[in-house]
Amino acid sequence: MTNADAAGSADAAGAADAQWRQRAVERSLRTARARAVSRSERFIAVATELLHETGSIDFTVQELVERSQMSLRSFYQHFASKDDLLLAVFEEAIRGFVDRLAQQVAAEHGPLERLRAYVLGFYTTIDPRTEPASRALSHYMLILTQTEPSELARVLAPQITLLMGIVADGQAAGVLRHDISTRHLTLLITQTLMAAMEMRVLGTYLTGEQISEEELWSFCTAGVVVRP
After folding, report:
1. Secondary structure (3-state) at 66
2. Residues 97 and 8 in one domain
3. In this predicted model, what pLDDT tens digit does every residue of 73-96 receive, in sequence order?
4. Do residues 118 and 105 make contact, with C-beta atoms less than 8 angstroms apart?
5. Are residues 101 and 206 in the same domain?
6. Judgement on whether residues 183 and 85 belong to the same structural domain of the protein
């Protein structure tokens, strides 16, 4: 065997050795990642249970650890703090909310019908009488608006994207006003809906009466629909 052949064999052996090592590392990382996700999901699920039972975000990390039957060390391996956990719980809640909302929108065809499904679905999907966790998360969202507005925007991005698509389609079809940009019209609708739902979830009816979904839809159409 020549020196060149020996060198080639060594390179091939080195490549094979690198491949098995790489596969071993990848398997180990997949296992560790799956374990981390599973434990994180467990903490999130237990935190959601506590929110539902108490309607408050005032539980302690120790209560969470005891309920989850996991260690304090494990908690801090997955979350930097209770606030970090609450943000994850909020993100999961919004993801589920948007998924349900998207299904309601997808069942409609015209842009105006899709906008109506979005508005009514947004306002009525959460029932504050049966979902105390929603009240707790509404309080938490108010905290985020002051302490972490960029994180709030990130979490709400899928919700905004869904509505922006509806608005853009409505403007293109000529049924929604186009003197206001798509982004700004989306923002105005979102702020109206979030304020209305927040009062509904928290039960803060400033005039003593709850707004009905049809009244909310009528108000929105007056502001965004092109009139003949």
Report:
1. helix
2. no
3. 988 988 899 999 999 999 998 999
4. yes
5. yes
6. yes
Range of the structural domain that residue 52 is part of: 1-79
Structure tokens at 201: 């979830």
What SS3 state is found at 176?
A: strand
Using DSSP, state whether 225 is helix, strand or coil: strand
Last residue of a domain, one of 38, 57, 79: 79
pTM of the model: 0.77
Please check whether residues 72 and 101 belong to one and the same domain: no
pLDDT (tens digit per residue) in 2-47? 555 554 555 555 555 677 667 665 665 555 455 544 678 888 999 9
100 in the same domain as 7: no
Query: Are 189 and 221 in contact, with CB atoms under 8 Å apart?
Result: no
Of all residues in the chain, what percent are helix, strand and coil, respectively (each to 5)?
80, 0, 20
Q: What is the tally of structural domains in the chain?
A: 2
Tokens 């020549």 found at: 2
Q: Cα separation of 211 and 203, whole Å? A: 11
**Cα atoms found within 13 Å of the Cα of residue 66, Cβ hemisphere only:** 6
Partner residues linked to 225 by β-bridges = 176
